[in-house]
Amino acid sequence: xxxxxVQKIATVKFINSHHGDIQAIFSVEKDFLSTVKExxxxxINGVCLTVYNILDDTxxxxxxxxxxxxxxxxxxxxxxKVNIETSLKxxxxxxxxxxSGHVDSIAKVIGLEKDSRSYKLCIELQxxxxxxxxxxxxxxxxxxxxxxxxxxxxxxxxxxxxxxTWDNTIMQYYKVGTVxxxxxxxxxxxxxxxxxxxx
Length: 199
Known about the structure:
Blueprint: E1 8-18, E2 21-27, H1 30-33, E3 41-44, E4 47-55, E5 58-63, H2 65-70, E6 81-86, E7 105-115, E8 118-125, E9 139-142, E10 145-152, E11 156-161, H3 163-168, E12 179-184, H4 186-196
Antiparallel strand pairs: 1-2, 1-6, 2-5, 3-4, 3-6, 4-5, 7-8, 7-12, 8-11, 9-10, 9-12, 10-11
């Protein structure tokens, strides 16, 4: 589990393809890796992956065919930037919202507008069936970032990005057409299942 509060930006150093699935090697600041152990889970652009082969300022993850099929990690190449966050500990503060690291849909940034010191993003889901779970003032996870929904309709949703989030995540590289990972608030999915249960 994660909180959606990005801790660092990492950079793809190498990609090794293995007949479909891939091994990705990332570089990141040493102080961040000093808190990570072999076998730990990391959120990488909102995708939960297992870390291994930690060497000085690099670490490796394996990404399966299934994960590549449903996330934006197919875009990884040398120099690509990603958001990373370590998994939630029991004594950690929950500053964002509960994030599982399981992507529900990819989406596209279809609007990006400067608003004073902040930015407004309009995002369109690829899988429209998830729009019913997105509500104004509710939580949404975009590329591993916990955000509050400003508005929504039957086609898109809108989020506001404050300067700190913009400057400390890969959102600073976003443009119209950027494809992102989306995780719906898990509480909404669980509540729907309970309400639809026949027991």
